[in-house]
What does this fold into?
Amino acid sequence: MKKTMYEKIWDAHLVRSSADEVPILYIDTHLVHEVTSPQAFEGLRLNNRKVRRPDLTFATMDHNVPTTDRSLPIKDLIAAKQMETLAQNCSEFDIPLYDINSPEQGIVHVIGPELGITQPGKTIVCGDSHTSTHGALGALAFGIGTSEIEHVLATQCLLQHKSETFEIRVDGTLPFGVTAKDIILSIIGHIGIDGGNGAVIEYTGSAIRALSIEERMTVCNMSIEAGARAGMIAPDDTTYEYIAGKRFSPKDEAFDAAVEQWKQLPTDDGAKYDRTLILDAAEIAPQVTWGTNPGMVTDVTGQVPDPAEMASTDEKQATEHALAYMDLKPGTPMTDISVDRVFIGSCTNSRISDLRAAAEVVKGRKVADTVNAMVVPGSQAVKRQAEAEGLHDVFRTAGFEWREAGCSMCLGMNPDTLMPGQRCASTSNRNFEGRQGKGGRTHLVSPQMAAATAVTGRFVDIREFSS
Amino acid sequence: MEAFKEHVGLVVPLDRINVDTDQIIPKQFLKRIERTGFGEFLFNDWRYLENGDPNPEFVLNHPRYTGASILISGVNFGCGSSREHAPWALQQYGFKAILAPSFADIFRNNCYKNGILPITLHADVIATLSKAAHKTEGYRLMVDLEEQSVVCPDGTAHTYEIGDFEKYCMLNGLDEIGWTLQYETDITAFENQNRL
Ligand code: SF4
It folds into this structure.
């Protein structure tokens, strides 16, 4: 039978499946961080259970770590306690931990691929919805809740229903100035934030093939913003080149053998998806969100929509709420909107290629007087690489703050937050109310657009700005 | 987990679509290492004013909904972050069931694991029930898991779907980890076979 990549990985990981039971799926890699895990470890202790495979479990601290000088004590005592708890749990259960002082520390979805932990064909879970990022290398990766974390710790398995398959094919060539971030934002704009509910998305087509691995991660990362269980992209030579030589990737003959196996993963010709959507890359423009979820998005050349033009009463109401929260008037051109803050970071866009692209825009320019801008690399390794290339100087000279690695203002659990009423151009993935700070107003954009916005103080069409 | 068979409770309508988990429990409350203490922060940013007083506009603060245990809301309830703190907060506030036209996947899963019943009903039914809750003070519904139905005060019943396994787990308050562990030999066999 012809199978999709999802079905192949699914079938290869079934420990048990019978008609009247929920299938038991084996998990190859479990990534753990400080915020969603403490109650899971506590559950193990209460029930006298062990971690079945500490060797398949990796932990890091990212969500609430400070991004300022790491040699100073952490001011937020509750956050410090949570980090300390993770360290204790990892030592008690023998789990490798990349803690705040580790040279490998970083956002869990940045370091997984970076260390070669993320590999094609694997099942990967983490107590974080953006685990879908790892699908960029051809893995089946998805976010789970704390009860499920405990389940995986204890059994290395999950009880899972099979998802539908949803192919999103992007054909053609991306125009100048249009990025992977714009692809995924425009997809979410098309299908809506629940358009992927119940499905695993496989991204296909020539425009996707042409993306680097880091760009593919940006696309897969935001699959969850369309409600999808996971997002994935079939591995190819770009993938194998990326994986070669990473710390945990197979070496020498083992690598060649692995590549032979990975080549079996892509969806068979003629296999059927439950749904398919086809988009033309040439029609995608740089995107900016105007509302309070990632589906409330438009082209940078567009305008803030009018609630009166919405199809349903629910949507009309939701748009009214969003515009009131965002303090925007219908019909305002996006390029008339000015910002107070710019945030370049998060598991969506904080990798070296993102920082290079932003630095390229910023080089020889200054951040507008009215704007406070910061760059938060996704990992310490990204930070070292950027510094070796002198990118930190480019950013600092322009007036950006240059920080240590972490989630930072993507969710504002650490001291990096928006003040009430502040407006931010952000390369992160969620513009929910209060996400970056209570009363803060977030507009999602690509790193290039964020950089240009920092310079001009308002949204600009990167295609005009750069030419 | 507590077993769930049926529940009769006061209904509160939250007329919004796409209620995300960042709203259900904002991130500043995720730093706790315990499973408890989240109820008072449920819908924090909507529920409290800048000075910490209850926001009189927010529906949960209307006196007539005090003690509500059944929440009705719009499509795609629980979208966004995977934080299980969201169902913990809802449950600790006192909610036993949530009725909506659709739910986000991870959130729905997390609900089952905490004894909250997420019930998907047709958008028209949700609209009718929400209207009734607005109109009639003290409007109560009966949520029956065994029969898979939501019963209105006038006796009208609306049936809903739930997976057999989820139903079984909820009805029996089953420990899922214990359930999986009974197949430990299968897990070991799988590991051996795949040289893991
Ligand atoms: S960067 Fe943001 S979205 Fe990514 S893992 Fe951290 S908090 Fe979650």
